[in-house]
Specification:
heterodimer, A: 297 residues, mainly alpha, MetI-like fold, 2 domains, B: alpha+beta, Rossmann fold, OB fold (Dihydrolipoamide Acetyltransferase, E2P), six-stranded mixed beta sheet, five-stranded antiparallel beta sheet, 24% helix, 36% strand, binds adenosine-5'-triphosphate, binds magnesium ion
Chain lengths: 297, 360
């Protein structure tokens, strides 16, 4: 090897290093473009067409699929229900998840790990099985109704299924661990010196919590709320099994349209869902400002 | 037991603290008079932080009692104690701007808004941060963050201000600047301060009193001049940079002092008292040792083992009577005698310069 070549090699070394690092990103990037971004763009294109009996979509461009949704109170009610259920589930998860997360975060590290692993346990059971579990509890011949009837409290079975509340309860139990894990990690990451500083400045433990710990856990609250909210938007099994035909959500509309081979309408619903998800992903951090805890205003 | 007096802002009464098998602080008694700047100085792990945290109430003593302004606070939680604290990493609340950080304690005290604003403005002025009230900690330099932390502690007018190596995070120049500012502020406001450091220069420069700790115990407490010039033992002497400790035998005693014999090197005069025939240990600061190629007034014969040029000074390593010493001489340009390793030299020191350590 000549000295000249060696010198060139040295100059190019950082470039190669950077290039080879980016190369690591290439396979997933290629997969993403090929199997996600391209179909998504195609779907977007499809959503601006009229339905067709024989083909995927009909001739000519139209805004009809979107306009129909905006003009139809049936669809608007479902969109509203979807958003309210998502918000409700996310906020209830936050409220009941926070104390648990706080307790876990304050455990010695080894216990904390065990607690987090236990939280992951229910996630190993399929959502279908868990939804049927709720049916077995809440259904007309479920545990609650048969118990109440055996004790003579009621004559006719209570209608506990297929309501927004049923869906919310089902989603809540599935999504709570995500919230707790995300909060616990965030709370555990708070430097204990902040809490000591607050106490050295006359803040009682309760005020220390509300003035320091709670705001400093904003990153965990943000990610927890976003994960839970977004997962409620895309949860199908739980919604269809516990909501039934009466309590539909946006995903149900997508599914129904696909089943009816109304591909362009299904695509339009999918993009409305995506737009709402993006909206949530923008609003939650804007309200909680997790950047604050790093002093970014 | 003497009743605790309000003249002392802080009193530790035979306080000790153990963590499992580790004893961090042993039976320590310490009184800190009002307005005193006390430094706790010692090597890593000697219990400085633990001592401070017991005053704050973040640690409960295993035995003994803590008093603040005469009131026993041993079981009182931190937020009900009259102190404030400057943390090593400053612990400024990242989600609050400078004004809200500084005003936090006053808000917790329930002061009216207008009073808080006035006090905060006043103290920010004092630490020269007036223009930065609405910045967030991340937007401040290290020195500015340090000033905010100080302001946040000062504004509480506490009985005692606790500082745990607050300058440790700053670079050398800024550190020296902040030392001076800290000292001036403390004197101006007359706040009692307990300052933890492992830097002896910092302790000497800042303190009214220095407590030197080792292994959970206070080895010596006194004014900077006392601990520096009359270290109570070899550890304290060593901590203040006296590396020269010699064994000698007392060969002559008279009312003015003693002569000791240091091995084969010779006999040297010291101005303190000791019994004839005893073996004693003495220490001499490197800058007090004079050396020359030949000089009738320097009584000890030695051999140079190494000469190290250090810019402002030169270090001479000596071997005499089987013991090793180091002498430091300020360089004055051209006055060097060209001494080099291997040379035979004579050395000695002023009889007052030697420090008597424990009898050997
Ligand atoms: N919470 C704790 N649990 C167990 N051991 C502890 C705890 N805090 C301190 N120790 C031990 O107590 C001893 C004194 O610790 P301390 O933090 O007071 O030392 P320090 O003088 O402040 O040291 P440094 O200069 O390194 O900060 C050390 O041996 C330390 O390991
Ligand atoms: Mg310490």
């Amino acid at each position: 090897m000549t000295p000249v070549m060696r010198a060139e090699g040295n100059i190019l070394l950082p470039v190669f290093a950077a290039a080879s690092r980016s190369a690591l990103l290439l396979p997933p990037l290629a997969l993403l473009v090929l199997f996600f971004l391209t179909p998504l763009l195609y779907l977007f294109f499809v959503s601006f067409h009229a339905p067709s009996q024989s083909d995927l979509f009909g001739e000519g461009l139209t805004l009809g699929n979107y306009l129909r949704v905006i003009g139809d109170s049936f669809f608007l009610t479902i969109i509203e229900r979807t958003m309210l259920t998502g918000a409700l589930v996310a906020l209830i998860c936050l409220a009941i998840g926070y104390p648990a997360a706080f307790a876990i975060a304050r455990m010695p590290p080894r216990h904390r790990l065990v607690a987090l692993l236990l939280l992951l346990f229910p996630l190993m059971v399929s959502n279908v099985i868990r939804a049927y579990g709720w049916v077995a509890i809440l259904g007309r011949r479920g545990v609650i109704n048969s118990t109440l009837r055996n004790f003579g409290v009621i004559d006719l079975p209570l209608d506990l299924m297929f309501s927004t509340a049923t869906v919310a309860v089902g989603l809540l139990t599935i999504l709570l661990p995500y919230m707790i894990i995300s909060l616990a990690n965030s709370i555990a990451a708070i430097d204990p010196h902040y809490e000591e500083a607050a106490q050295s400045l006359r803040a009682s433990p309760v005020r220390t919590f509300f003035h320091v710990t709670l705001p400093l856990s904003a990153p965990g609250m943000t990610s927890g709320l976003m994960i839970v909210f977004l997962l409620t938007l895309s949860a199908y099994v739980t919604v269809s099994l516990l909501g039934g035909p009466r309590t539909k959500m946006l995903v149900s509309l997508v599914f129904d349209s696909v089943v009816a081979f109304a591909w362009p309408r299904a695509a339009a619903f999918a993009f409305i869902l995506l737009a709402l998800a993006l909206g949530v992903a923008l609003i939650v951090p804007a309200v909680l400002r997790p950047g604050r805890v790093r002093g970014l205003g | 037991m003497t009743p605790p007096s309000a003249e002392f802002d802080v009193r530790l009464d035979r306080v000790s603290k153990t963590f499992g098998a580790v004893t961090a602080v042993r039976e320590t008694t310490l009184d800190i008079p009002r307005g005193t700047f006390l430094s706790i100085l010692g090597p890593s792990g000697c219990g400085k932080t633990t001592t401070l945290r017991m005053i704050a109430g973040f640690e409960r003593p295993t035995t003994g009692n803590v008093y603040i302004r005469g009131a026993r606070v041993t079981e009182v939680p931190p937020y009900k104690r009259d102190f404030s604290m400057v943390f090593q990493n400053f612990a400024l609340f990242p989600h609050l701007d400078v004004a809200h950080n500084v005003g936090f304690g006053l808000r917790m005290r329930g002061l009216p808004r207008a009073d808080i604003d006035r006090e905060v403005a006043g103290v920010l002025d004092l630490v020269k941060l007036s223009g930065l009230a609405d910045r967030f900690p991340r937007q401040l330099s290290g020195g500015q963050q340090q000033r905010v932390a100080l302001a946040r502690a000062i504004v509480m007018s506490p009985a005692v201000m606790l500082l745990d190596e607050p300058l440790g995070a700053l670079d050398k120049n800024l550190r020296e600047e902040m030392q001076i500012e800290l000292r001036q502020l403390q004197q101006k406001l007359g706040i009692t301060a307990v300052f933890v450091t492992h830097d002896q220069d910092e302790a000497l420069a800042l303190s009214d009193r220095i407590a030197v700790m080792r292994d959970g115990r206070i080895e010596q407490i006194g004014a900077p001049r006392d601990v520096y010039e009359r270290p109570a033992n070899e550890f304290v002497a060593g901590f203040f940079g006296v590396s020269n400790v010699m064994n000698g035998e007392v060969v002559h005693v008279d009312p003015d002092g003693i002569d000791i014999k240091i091995g084969e090197a010779g006999t040297v005069r010291l101005s303190f008292a000791a019994e004839p025939g005893r073996r004693i240990r003495v220490a001499v600061r490197p800058e007090k040792i004079r050396i020359a190629r030949s000089n009738a007034s320097l009584p000890l014969k030695a051999r140079l083992t190494d000469v190290v040029y250090r810019g402002a000074s030169t270090s001479f390593f000596l071997e005499l009577g089987g013991q090793t010493l180091v002498a430091i001489r300020q360089n004055e340009g051209g006055r060097e005698e060209g001494l080099k390793a291997g040379d035979a030299v004579v050395c000695g020191w002023d009889p007052n310069a030697a420090i008597k350590l424990a009898d050997g």
